[in-house]
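F.,

This is the one I mentioned.
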């Protein structure tokens, strides 16, 4: 099943009748409107033109009823919106059923991000690693345990890589461009701070001098939502004039952080940990 067919299936599961072919406008998620499509821009990967004018992206996870009332792990799905609530992308996970149930948040996956014309604009790939990154990144010093995601676009290939760094009581990440140069670093909050009833912020700092230029923030969803689901909402803030390719890489970092930090918390709750 190709990404377009998977996109149609996921949309239909949410009561959206999709019968068109790639290149034809489709309906946004319920309660949303599509962000007006900007014109093509030279040097910008096809479909990422939306990001050129944005400094904030909201990532909303869509939760299915079966996952709320049971421990059955389904494929993750997300809606990406701008600060005005206009939808610009839809993201859906491709992964194996056995790996989702047995490996949980450690699982490998391919995340497909498509625009309102069903064009795949970003592909996020993560391989399964059995040892993971350890509690709060303590095993990330071992190469085979380092978690990472590769961010690609169909028109330009690899845009960048997110790789876990060794940390003590916090999860840290390097944000690299397509040439492997570390451009940004993300130093997560202390492990104990991830359990509180407040937003969790992961500052984005320049690699050369540590200047904070943005943040990936997991929004507090309220007691019921946090206790019984892992339907998370993230705000991704970055400079408006940042290279659009790096904006795409930072969006990719959001998905890795969600799986590593917050999907694990949900699994622990379900297991009574």
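My design for it:
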């Amino acid at each position: 099943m190709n990404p377009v067919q998977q996109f149609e299936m996921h949309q239909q599961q949410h009561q959206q009748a999709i019968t068109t072919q790639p290149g034809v406008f489709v309906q946004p998620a319920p309660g949303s409107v599509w962000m007006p499509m900007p014109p093509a821009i030279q040097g910008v990967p096809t479909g990422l033109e939306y990001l050129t004018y944005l400094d904030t992206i909201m990532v909303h996870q869509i939760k299915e009823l079966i996952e709320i009332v049971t421990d059955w792990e389904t494929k993750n799905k997300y809606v990406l919106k701008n600060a005005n609530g206009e939808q610009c992308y839809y993201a859906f996970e491709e992964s194996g059923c056995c790996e989702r149930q047995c490996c949980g948040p450690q699982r490998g996956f391919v995340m497909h991000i498509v625009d309102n014309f069903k064009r795949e604009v970003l592909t996020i790939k993560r391989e399964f690693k059995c040892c993971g990154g350890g509690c709060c990144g303590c095993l990330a010093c071992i190469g085979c345990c380092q978690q990472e995601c590769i961010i690609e676009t169909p028109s330009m290939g690899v845009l960048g890589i997110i790789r876990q760094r060794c940390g003590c009581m916090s999860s840290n990440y390097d944000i690299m461009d397509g040439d492997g140069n570390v451009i940004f670093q993300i130093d997560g909050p202390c492990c104990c701070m991830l359990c509180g009833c407040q937003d969790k912020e992961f500052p984005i700092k320049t690699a050369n001098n540590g200047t904070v230029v943005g943040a990936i923030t997991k929004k507090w969803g309220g007691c019921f939502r946090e206790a019984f689901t892992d339907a998370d909402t993230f705000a991704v803030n970055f400079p408006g004039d940042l290279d659009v390719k790096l904006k795409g890489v930072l969006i990719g970092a959001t998905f890795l952080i969600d799986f590593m930090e917050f999907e694990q918390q949900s699994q622990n709750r379900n297991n009574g940990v």
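The helical segments are 3-13, 49-52, 65-69, 97-103, 223-228, 244-270.

Talk soon.
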